[in-house]
Structures are given as C-alpha cells and as structure tokens.
Amino acid sequence: MRKLTKVTRWMATAATLVGVGVVAPVVTAAPASAAGYGCAGNLSYSKAVYGNRNGFSSKLGTVYDYFDGTYNCSVFVKSAWAGTPSWITLAIYREPNDGTYDEDSGDFSSYAGPVRIKAPGTCVVEMLDVYSPGGTQAYVGQIGPHSCG
Prior knowledge:
disordered N terminus; 48% strand; globular; 149 residues; four-stranded antiparallel β-sheet; mainly beta
C-alpha cells in the first residue's frame, strides 16, 4: 500500500506541474521603452545582429532605433553574454555621410548607447563592432540605412 501512496503522490504532483505548464502563459521580454535606454521618441527600426567573425554566428543582440521627430537615438542590446562585460562600439551617422556622427564605446554588460544624431528627412546608419568577453571580435558591420524620411 505504501508504494501506491508514493505513486499516487508522484502522479498528482506531475499532473499539477503539467497543468501549470499548460495554463501558465509563456512570458517573453519586450524591448524596454526608449526612455529606458536614455532615448526619446518611438521605435522606428530594430534589427537582430548575428555574429559574422571568427566562427561566431549566433544572435549577439538587437539594434533599436528611436525617432522623436528630430533626433534618431540608437542602442545595441546584448543577448549573448548579457550580464558579462564585453567591448562594444556603436556609432550612428546620417546617410549620405557628412562626417557627423555620435559614438559610444566601452565594456558593456547589457547595452551600448544611446547614440544620437539630428536626422529629420534623411536616413541613418549604425556602425557596430562587438567582441566576446574573451576579446575576440564577433561582429563588425553596418546596420542600415534605415528610418529614412
């Protein structure tokens, strides 16, 4: 009889856990608001960034661009190595490039930026350089042009 009690308890626990899994919704993190990153405006563009150097090919993070009617403000939010400092350089400029840009570089644990540029009526481009915590370059490239207008 004792075995039946243990089995019955185990089955009741398993049924409860399965029931919770079926009923409980899956919660995914949404990107923080512009203000959460020090930007103003509404999200105008986002792009997932995947490794393209030294054997890295998985998702490293996402570039978010916000526009308030005058300024574009961009951040790069890490998904790889989140919580661990790694070197990132993020820059934003107008397209066509007139030599004006804003840049943020350093060892970041969660995101790089914000970087801002006054760009009404023109496109913007981000340049991004991402390294692993061990110092190996995982991505370098241009995001855009986008958010034209």
